[in-house]
Structure formats: structure tokens, C-alpha cells
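User: Please fill in residues for this 253-position structure.
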């Protein structure tokens, strides 16, 4: 199937599912109230979407953790959080749109585990807003955090790849999932203490030699400690990437 045929098939599928959501009664994935026909974004009602917890303060340029600022002064006291000042991620910058809590946590859970894959386009809008705020679109390609093939078979899709593809469509930057693969399946990061997460993902990712010389944006749905981004960036840089940046919808604070 050609790229044009694939894109057309995806568009028709999305239109069909949207039509079903209009015709059939449905509820907001966050508040569970009846979902309006008009004032909604995908499976989220307008009120819940507008109330998503956005990060508005300065953030660590290495892991996107919000940084303290002095009252009356917009600039942060530091450009790195305490943890990253000792061991920064090998990225030019890392950022996130919102805080992983409340309504945004519920939305991403549905996107990740409940087959609400149609949320990808809406969440890509949030990522694109964050990119616009930084004024940095100078990337050769967008690369999703890969999922091991056995895990992807069980889940049915890689939510990070769907998100990266949607960010690609919005910003006209190619998405190339082939540049980074996950060679072994690890224990789920969220089940581990911070100290164990780095070791859990170390040497799990392998980058293609085609990454050499490229400016790459790595995309994921959630950034917790940043260790997954660290491992991905390290693999890409070791393969010769010119620079790597990282972005997610949400940051666990």
C-alpha cells in the first residue's frame, strides 16, 4: 500500500469513528458526563479540555521539571533542577505541555491503555503549542519513543508513535520510527523507584546509522524522571545524531 493510500485509509477510519461518536451516546473520558456534540475535543468535553493542568512556569531545560522563581521575576533562579545539575540528560532541551495529574493523567491513561488512539491529533496540538513557545522547529525528523514489539502486539499500538505521527502532520517535519528501536522488553518504568529506572532502560534502545548528522525531536506521551528520554537520546547521539531534543504531553512533578 502506498503512502497516499495509507493516509487516505487512516483519514477514512478516523472520519468513520468520529461519525459513530456523534451518532451514538458517549461520555467524557474525564468527567464521565454526557459528551456534547459540539463543545468537545475528541472524547473530552470542552470544560475538561480547557481545565487541563498546563505548566506555565519556567522548566528545567534537561527534564522539564518546573523551576522555582522569585516573586515578581519571571526568570528562573536556575536553568537546571538539582538532579539534572549533577547528571543532565544528553539533550539540547526537554519540555512538556502540562503536569501529569488529574484530568490530564486520566486523558493520557485513556490514550495509552483504553484504545482512545483518536486522541493523538488533539494531544499533538498541545505538543505543537509547546514547540511554538520555544520557537524551535528546526528538526530533520521526529522520532517516537519505541515500544518493544512483543508489548506493542499485546497493546495493539504504540501511543508515542501515534502522537509523533500527529505532531509530524501538524508541523511538516517527517516522522521516522525506524531510527530508533527497543531491543529488549523491560519492567514498566512507573513501577520502579527513581534509582532503578536508569538501569532498567540502559542499553535498551538501538539507533540506526541513518540518524547520523540529523537534528532529532524525540516524542513521548509522559516524562517521569526523564530516564527513558536519556536512554533514547544517548543511543541517537552514539549513532551520530547532530542534536537531540525531547518533548512530551505531560511531566510528572
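Assistant: Residues filled in for all 253 positions:
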Amino acid at each position: 500500500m502506498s503512502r497516499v493510500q495509507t493516509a487516505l485509509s487512516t483519514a477514512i477510519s478516523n472520519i468513520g469513528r468520529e461519525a459513530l461518536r456523534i451518532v451514538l451516546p458517549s461520555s467524557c473520558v474525564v468527567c464521565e458526563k454526557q459528551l456534547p456534540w459540539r463543545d468537545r475535543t475528541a472524547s473530552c468535553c470542552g470544560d475538561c479540555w480547557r481545565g487541563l493542568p498546563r505548566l506555565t512556569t519556567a522548566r528545567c531545560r534537561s527534564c522539564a521539571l518546573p523551576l522555582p522563581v522569585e516573586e515578581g521575576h519571571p526568570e528562573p533562579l536556575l536553568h537546571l533542577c538539582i538532579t539534572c545539575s549533577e547528571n543532565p540528560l544528553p539533550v539540547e532541551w526537554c519540555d512538556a505541555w502540562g503536569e501529569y495529574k488529574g484530568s490530564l493523567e486520566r486523558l493520557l491513561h485513556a490514550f495509552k491503555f483504553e484504545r482512545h488512539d483518536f486522541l493523538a491529533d488533539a494531544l499533538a496540538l498541545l505538543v505543537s503549542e509547546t514547540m511554538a513557545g520555544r520557537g524551535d522547529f528546526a528538526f530533520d525528523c521526529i522520532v517516537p519513543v519505541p515500544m518493544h514489539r512483543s508489548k506493542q502486539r499485546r497493546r495493539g499500538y504504540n501511543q508515542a508513535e501515534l502522537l509523533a505521527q500527529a505532531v509530524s502532520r501538524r508541523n511538516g517535519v517527517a516522522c521516522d520510527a525506524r531510527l530508533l528501536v527497543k531491543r529488549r522488553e523491560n519492567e514498566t518504568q512507573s513501577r520502579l523507584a527513581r534509582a532503578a529506572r536508569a538501569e532498567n532502560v540502559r542499553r535498551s534502545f538501538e539507533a540506526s546509522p541513518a540518524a547520523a548528522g540529523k537534528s532529532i525531536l524525540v516524542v513521548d506521551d509522559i516524562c517521569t524522571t526523564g530516564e527513558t528520554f536519556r536512554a533514547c537520546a544517548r543511543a541517537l547521539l552514539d549513532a551520530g545524531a547532530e542534536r537531540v531534543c525531547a518533548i512530551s504531553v505531560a511531566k510528572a512533578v
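For context: Residues 3-23 form the longest helix (21 residues).
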